[in-house]
Amino acid sequence: MVAMGVFPAIYSTLSPQALIEGVLPKYELGAIDRCLFWNRGLSDIYLIETAAQSYILKVSHHHWRSKSDIQFELEFLDFLFQHHIPVANPLKTKDGKLFVTINAVEGDRYGALFRFAPGEVPLGDLSIDQSNILGQTLGRIHQTSLKFNSQTPRQPLNFKHLLDDSLEVISPCLSDINKDLSYLTNTIAKIKQQLSCLEQTAPFWSVCWGDPHSGNVHFTADNQITLFDFDQCGYGWRIFDIAKFLQVSLGAGMNRKVRDAFFAGYQTIQKLTDSETESLQAATQMAHIWAWAISINAAAIHNWSRLDNCYCSKRLQQLKRLSSKEWQLF
């Protein structure tokens, strides 16, 4: 057997104590009372508590996003905060950086510190008023992002990234014995054709949040909102963000009136064109396919057993429902 030194890893859980000693001193925080590993998702989330304030340390996964992806996201959040959009903005280190590079076993990972967003995730999902506020806030993001100018490269949310790359990820999980792969391939071709009318020019094309839904917002008791989790942001069609909200909301069984309030709220800030509205169903199917591919990539790292026949069959059936004439009735 060849000596390997430290055994290679594809994912590691960073020690909270090591973060206290080696990462958090890079910020002006004072004494740290506690650092807790809070949640494992597409990034690792740590809750940081001091006597005066609570914070969130968000640490990227090595396989998930590049250094430039992280830089783009944090630049965009800082920009939105400076323009009075209610987002959880990244705090800068003592030397003015938006993130800290962490040399983990599997390779470089990137940590960004945020103040804990006031309030909490809506209990039992959004109310009509909260949904309207979220829609308005997304409209303001798209409106404001037209002024954003970053030199940091970031993969755009275009057909290649959302559909072609997703098909490459999903295909090995599907068998064509039941024509599943053929159905997905044909559906993607139809989506591209139906969305070919969308323009990649302002205001239709701007920086998108990429993941707007009730799980990525906090509301206070008086309905003050704070948005977070911009992992999936990038330049894309504004209608795609609305479709992403619908894709998550339909899957969760959100009430139609609540979904309509989001749409109405958005249009008080930015009026959609008829072609955008007509493309919404196809864009929602596209959002579903992209989310499916993201979940496969995450499962392959953390829990390969999830990727069984039931897993893929369920998501294929969801896609078929989104393709039906009654797509907004469930």
Helix-strand layout with pairing:
Elements: H1 16-22, E1 34-40, E2 43-49, E3 54-60, H2 67-82, E4 100-104, E5 107-115, H3 128-145, H4 159-170, H5 180-194, E6 205-208, E7 217-219, E8 225-227, E9 234-237, H6 238-252, H7 256-269, H8 274-278, H9 280-302, H10 309-322
Antiparallel strand pairs: 1-2, 2-3, 3-5, 4-5, 6-9, 7-8
Strand order of the largest sheet: 1-2-3-5-4
List how many beta strands DSSP finds: 9
Structural class: alpha+beta
Remind me, CATH topology of the largest domain? Aminoglycoside 3'-phosphotransferase, Chain: A, domain 2
Rg value? 20 Å
Overview of this protein structure:
This protein has 330 residues and is an alpha+beta fold. The protein folds into 2 domains: 100 residues, 2-Layer Sandwich (Phosphorylase Kinase, domain 1); 195 residues, Aminoglycoside phosphotransferase (APH), C-terminal lobe (Aminoglycoside 3'-phosphotransferase, Chain: A, domain 2, Alpha-Beta Complex), CATH 3.90.1200. The chain is 42% helix and 15% strand. The strands form 3 sheets. The protein has a 5-stranded antiparallel sheet with strand order 1-2-3-5-4, with helices on both faces. A two-stranded antiparallel sheet has the order 6-9. The longest helix has 23 residues. The N and C termini lie far apart (57 Å). The relative contact order is 0.13.
What would you say about this model in short?
It is built from ten helices and nine strands. With 330 residues, it is α+β, with helices and mostly antiparallel strands.
